[in-house]
Specification:
heterodimer; A: 2 domains; six-stranded mixed β-barrel; three-stranded mixed β-sheet; 14 helices; B: Rossmann fold; six-stranded mixed β-sheet
Chain lengths: 422, 241
């Protein structure tokens, strides 16, 4: 009964708005664009943060990656004199890191060598990753076939290798995958497993794995390929000696990541004369991404907020004009016995209906915009239920907020004066 | 209270006791009603006359519960309504009073049916029941074929008949008519007047403001106002019922 009366009130409101179709449509526009921009903004923001989170997930949010780099003055020296430069992380470093910090759960040493790999007539340059089985804990990727390296491989120095899906497709082609013998440099390795890689071909300094990786045990890499590398840079060959190119560290708790990273930095500086390493923290990147997103949201949120405010003021303006125009109608209703609160309800329902319909149309537009953005620029956008419901609730709220004053004005109309009003 | 029972008769539809209405106009005070005491019996038909500024409109507003007295008391069917607040007065108008105006005061955007249904809407009637009642009332005033028309499509006489139908929707005991024939030609005006006479025969108390003597003479009593006071009351002798 009460419900049906409420519905009837809404229908009466809609009927009244339909009497002035163009005016109602124009009044709505402000809210339409306001809500549309909020929905679009939320979905773009959501898309950006989802992408950032995806990135962090690839890196491992509890991981710290220490990478060997040539220090700046060493770099300068090696171009003028041809001598062997020795830099980077050492085997000792890894042991020290593992023993010093009780917040560290696991570490994986990484030795990187670029080598030509050959299988029958096919060949390609691979990035040989000499590491321990811990790598596969720290850089978790789905196994496509076979297995990953295990402790036995490491201890027995078995000549086995794990390829990435990309490498497997390129080099193994249609032949049976597991069990093939792959020549890397001058040595043969049995392929025991294939895993997926989440990085691109070129990789990214922050992402530990690459598409062209082949994983072998660190001991074997040390034994077969040694610690000294020739490096070809613009015609001149330089010798470099690097024991470990990376150490991947996993911390036991997200809360300890930043303090551990600071500790690592401090400890390494004691043992390295030159700054020939970089400690990078994926979590810091996440924080940065979140901070960027927050700024982004504040800026876009204020723009959207202002446009909603403008929309609301537009509604209020028209409703005030409407109250003046309908003074006589209000007077008639009051004379017949309508109470003030019933007049307020009538006008409030009209504004809320107006702003809510505006909100619905706005959501429609706001959903289209991110779809277009994704189609045109490839930027990821995510439309969530919240990003639709929130602006809808806000638009109804705007109807109430900006409808209250005109409705109160309507209720103040004195029937005696209103009925004389021509 | 004892005094009240002496002066109050159950036959009184409406009674004013020492009714004052004072308006503040700048620094000046205007006594629109300057102490009026009068009773209108149940089932009577009154015409209130008087020049402009005589207080007849103010009296109408007071009697119609659209305005409140500055001083004095107003009894409607025996109930003291002089101190009621705005909500209660609205409630009173909605449930017990009927209004007819000179300029009809129909809502232009609403159909005839919706206009007639307006009091029923505020009374909370259900839609189908209310539509049925509107149809009956339209038949009673001879406009059943115009239910879906807008007031702008009707003649003045038809509009006033819609207004009468609307005034009857809540089945009031008393109807206030503020110059109901003022905007109509004499033939149409007489038709409307005849409808009021018929309603009076059905037992409705009718209080009508008019300045046309030939209309006023059809009422049972003619009350003449002057300077916020009752000048004289004519009629009452010829009971035509």
């Amino acid at each position: 009964m009460r419900q049906s009366r409420f519905v009837r009130n809404i229908w009466l409101g809609i009927e009244n708005l339909l009497l002035h179709k163009l005016r109602s449509f124009l009044t709505m526009l402000g809210v339409v664009f306001g809500v549309g921009s909020v929905v679009a903004m939320l979905s773009v923001g959501e898309g950006a943060s989802k992408e950032a989170l995806e990135q962090i997930r690839k890196l491992g949010s509890n991981n710290i990656i220490i990478t060997s780099v040539k220090s700046a003055d060493d770099e300068a020296a090696s171009t003028t004199h041809s001598h062997m430069s020795i830099y980077g992380l050492t085997y000792e470093d890894q042991l020290r890191v593992e023993e010093t910090f009780n917040t560290i759960r696991e570490t994986a040493p990484v030795k990187l060598i670029r080598k030509e790999a050959r299988l029958g007539e096919r060949s390609m340059e691979l990035r040989v990753v000499g590491t321990t089985p811990q790598w596969f804990d720290l850089v978790q990727r789905p196994i496509i076939a076979g297995r990953v390296l295990n402790e036995a491989d490491n201890q027995e120095q078995s000549p086995v290798a794990v390829l990435t899906e990309f490498g497997a497709r390129k080099i193994l082609a249609t032949k049976n995958t597991i069990g093939q013998s792959l020549r890397i440099g001058g040595d043969y390795f049995e392929i025991v497993g294939i895993i997926k890689s989440e990085s691109g071909e070129a990789g990214n300094i922050q992402i530990p794995d690459q598409q062209v990786d082949v994983y072998i045990s660190l001991q074997l890499a040390k034994k077969y390929f040694g610690d000294v590398f020739y490096k070809q840079t613009s015609g001149t060959r330089t010798l470099e000696m690097v024991e470990l190119h990376q150490i991947i560290v996993q911390v036991d708790d997200t809360d300890h990541v930043e303090s551990t990273a600071a500790g690592l930095e401090k400890m390494l500086s004691k043992f390295h004369k030159k700054k020939d390493y970089i400690v990078s923290v994926p979590l810091a990147l996440l924080r940065q991404a979140e901070a960027t997103k927050r700024t982004f949201n504040i800026v876009l949120g204020s723009i959207a907020g202002i446009s909603l405010l403008v929309g609301g003021i537009g509604i209020m303006n028209i409703m005030l004009a409407s109250v003046t125009e309908r003074t006589r109608e209000i007077g008639i209703r009051r004379a017949i016995g309508a109470q003030r609160k019933q007049i307020i309800t009538q006008f409030l329902i009209e504004t809320v209906v107006l702003s809510t319909i505006g909100g619905l149309v706005g959501v429609g537009i706001g959903v289209l915009i991110p779809v277009l953005i994704t189609a045109v620029s490839g930027m990821p956008t995510v439309i969530t239920l919240t990003s639709i419901l929130l602006p809808l609730i806000i638009s109804a709220g705007i109807g109430i907020l900006f409808g209250l004053y005109p409705a109160a004005r309507a209720a103040k109309v004195d029937p005696i004066i209103a009925l004389r009003h021509e | 209270m004892i005094e009240q029972s002496e002066t109050h008769s159950s036959e009184d539809m409406v009674r004013l006791e020492d009714a004052h209405k004072i308006y503040q106009m700048g620094t000046e005070q205007v006594n629109a009603l300057a102490g009026v005491t009068v009773s209108f019996k149940r089932g009577s038909f009154w015409a209130i006359m008087g020049p402009s500024g005589s207080g007849k409109s103010t009296m109408m507003n007071i009697l119609g519960c659209l305005d409140r007295l500055s001083k004095g008391r107003y009894f409607l069917e025996g109930d003291d309504v002089s101190t009621l607040n705005d909500n209660s007065l609205s409630e009173l108008r909605l449930r017990r009073l009927g209004f007819i105006f000179q300029s009809f005061n129909l809502i232009q955007q609403l159909s005839v049916q919706r206009n007639i249904e307006l009091p029923l809407y505020y009374l909370g009637w259900e839609a189908d029941k209310s539509a049925k009642r509107a149809k009956e009332l339209a038949e009673q005033v001879g406009l059943e074929s115009r239910l879906n028309h807008k007031p702008t499509e009707l003649s003045g006489g038809q509009m006033q008949r819609v207004a009468i139908a609307r005034a009857l929707a809540n089945d009031p005991n008393i109807i206030f008519a503020d110059e109901p024939t003022g905007n109509l030609d004499s033939t149409t005006g007489e038709q409307i007047l005849q409808m009021l006479i018929d309603l009076n025969r059905l037992g409705k108390t009718i209080i009508m403001v008019t300045h046309e003597p030939y209309i006023a003479k059809h009422a049972q009593y003619q009350l003449h106002m002057k300077d916020g006071l009752i000048d004289r009351i004519d009629g009452g002798g010829d009971e035509t019922k």
